[in-house]
Amino acid sequence: MSFINTEKLISPQEECQHLLFNFNAFNDVSSSMLLEKLESAGILKEPETLSRGERIISPGEMERHIYFIEDGAMRIFFVHEDEEYITRLAYSGDIITALDSFITKKPTEFYIEAIRTTTVRKATVEDYLGLMKTDAEMLEMWDFMLGQLVTQQMERERDLLIPSPAVRYERVVARSPKLFQEVPLKYIASYLRMTPETLSRILKS
């Protein structure tokens, strides 16, 4: 299995089918509010450190947790014809889980992997859903975050349909300027569907 960053790989339409059930980043306010809520409910586990390359879930496994990244960075990706395709990048302050499994209660099709030493806290899906059933504010936050997910997916779909690598870069950096401080360029290049060399030229121009 190789890690390829070229513009020619799978179609935007095919990748967007995989994007539908991914979620990671919501705004800082909503993620911190959710973290506080889970902390006060006593269902948030102690911090856990992941090594670079360590995976919290792989295809065929059930998602049993929702994770909050305290420090570090992670990626969500899938494999198609032996090539890796990054669909999401997450870093400190973000929420991450395999939402396809979270929602459908079926095994995931994705990998979630630390791309550097990363500290996370987690709550079980069972505890999280149980709290949401008894707390109207939690349910409201969840609805808001799913709305954010839909907005992110629409932006990502548009990114994938834009032929210009420079414009794709500009759109992503405008939405997530912190991304370039947190994530190595080779992963950003893959996320942007371009080669590392193309991204380097854009950054130098």
TrEMBL record:
Name listed for the protein in its UniProt record: Crp/Fnr family transcriptional regulator
Where, if anywhere, are coiled coils annotated?
none
Superkingdom of the source?
A: Bacteria
Note the PROSITE patterns from the entry: CNMP_BINDING_3 (PS50042)
Write down the Pfam families for this protein, in alphabetical order: cNMP_binding
Q: Where is the Cyclic nucleotide-binding domain?
A: 22-121
